[in-house]
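Why should sequence recovery work at all? Because a backbone constrains its sequence more than one might expect. Tight turns favour small or flexible residues, buried strands favour hydrophobic ones, and helices have their own preferences. The token representation captures these environments compactly. In the example below, the structure is given first.
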């Protein structure tokens, strides 16, 4: 028995740590989404065409794995699930990506990754609206979630209206001339960019909420991610064909036009949808959005190192404020999760017990019935014992 317990504890530890490991690893992969996205926009690639190729490559990459690994466990497709997948394909692959890349075009990769930290708070608000989350203002955890949401919005608003002085993390003078245009550009470009990014955040939060509902109806994460990417490819193609009429915009080559859609399609769309669906099925949509500050830190460093982006004081202050508000929401959500687990454990223990100590009269009645049954059983056994003794005596006499 002693050899089994360590394995059980190790397995339990890995099970509890699995959502954290998956989400932390995903943030490193998602950081490349902002770097490649900003790079491809700087080179002039149409963002709608980029979105189509991104989701098409994600579909091609995920389809074989979904067919092989979920061939037997994949549930039947129903009309409600199909409609939900079509809405999911529009919310994130089309709406969110379009407005996020548009806002990134006006600002920077690090600025965009910082504003995206507002997604957990927006997700919390939407979850309350659709009754996936509960709020009791008398409880500390609910107060933490509400205050954290307000603080997060305050940080996003600060970043939208205040820019502040700029400085570089890894470059001193090589990119100063390059960024002079951004200094001379009006501040409303940053405000417009922040508004576009926030619009994308609302779409992404709606995507998380609907995905958490759909994955319960269609519990095949790989197949669901593949279908979402396929729906996004079809719907994005319609938008791209309307927005971009030149055939040259659809040309691919062995450069940014290939590796940017390939990386973002595989990591930011395909693997991200699968991991998010897996984690949300375990811990819910708010938990799945709680690790964005890590992505913000990675993007800030890579953006300065690879793209020569300048970091503004308003972005730093706003990012800190958003991170504080975010973790206030996450703390409240963690308390909800621990309390729900404790409640489930108590319900399981209650079901296994037929006698409770809350009603003394019931216990007395049960004890009396048991004593009566014991006395009756004893009386019935006494004649049998006497008959057995007589039989034994008779045999011995013979």
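From this structural description, the recovered sequence reads:
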């Amino acid at each position: 028995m002693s050899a089994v317990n360590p394995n059980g504890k190790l397995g339990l530890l890995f099970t509890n740590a699995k959502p954290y490991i998956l989400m932390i690893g995903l943030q490193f992969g998602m950081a490349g989404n902002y770097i490649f996205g900003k790079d491809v926009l700087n080179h002039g690639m149409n963002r709608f065409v980029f979105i189509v190729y991104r989701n098409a490559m994600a579909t091609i990459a995920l389809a074989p794995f979904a067919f092989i690994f979920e061939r037997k466990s994949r549930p039947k497709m129903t009309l409600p699930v199909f409609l939900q997948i079509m809405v999911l394909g529009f919310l994130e692959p089309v709406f969110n990506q379009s407005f996020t890349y548009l806002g990134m075009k006006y600002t920077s990769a690090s600025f965009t990754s910082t504003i995206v930290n507002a997604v957990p708070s927006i997700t919390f608000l939407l979850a309350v609206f659709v009754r996936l989350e509960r709020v009791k203002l008398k409880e500390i955890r609910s107060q933490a979630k509400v205050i954290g949401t307000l603080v997060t919005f305050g940080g996003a608003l600060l970043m939208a209206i205040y820019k502040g002085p700029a400085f570089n993390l890894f470059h001193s003078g090589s990119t100063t001339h390059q960024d002079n245009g951004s200094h001379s550009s009006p501040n409303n470009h940053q405000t417009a960019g922040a508004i576009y990014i926030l619009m994308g955040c609302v779409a992404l939060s709606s995507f998380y909420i609907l995905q958490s509902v759909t994955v319960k109806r269609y519990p095949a994460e790989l197949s669901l991610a593949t279908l979402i990417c396929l729906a996004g490819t079809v719907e994005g193609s319609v938008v791209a064909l309307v927005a971009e009429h030149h055939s040259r915009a659809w040309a691919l080559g062995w450069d940014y036009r290939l590796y940017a859609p390939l990386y973002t399609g595989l990591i930011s769309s395909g693997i991200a949808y699968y991991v998010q669906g897996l984690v949300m099925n375990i811990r819910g949509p708010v938990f799945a959005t709680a690790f964005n500050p890590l992505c913000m830190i990675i993007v800030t460093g890579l953006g300065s190192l690879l793209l020569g982006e300048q970091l503004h004081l308003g972005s730093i202050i706003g990012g800190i404020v958003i991170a504080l508000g975010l973790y206030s929401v996450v703390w409240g959500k963690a308390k909800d999760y621990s309390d729900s687990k404790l409640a489930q454990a108590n319900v399981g223990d209650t079901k296994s017990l037929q006698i409770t100590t809350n009603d003394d009269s019931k216990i007395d009645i049960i004890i009396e019935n048991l004593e009566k049954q014991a006395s009756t059983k004893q009386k019935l056994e006494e004649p049998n014992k006497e008959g057995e003794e007589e039989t034994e005596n008779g045999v011995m006499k013979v």
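A few observations help interpret the result. The longest strand covers residues 166-167.
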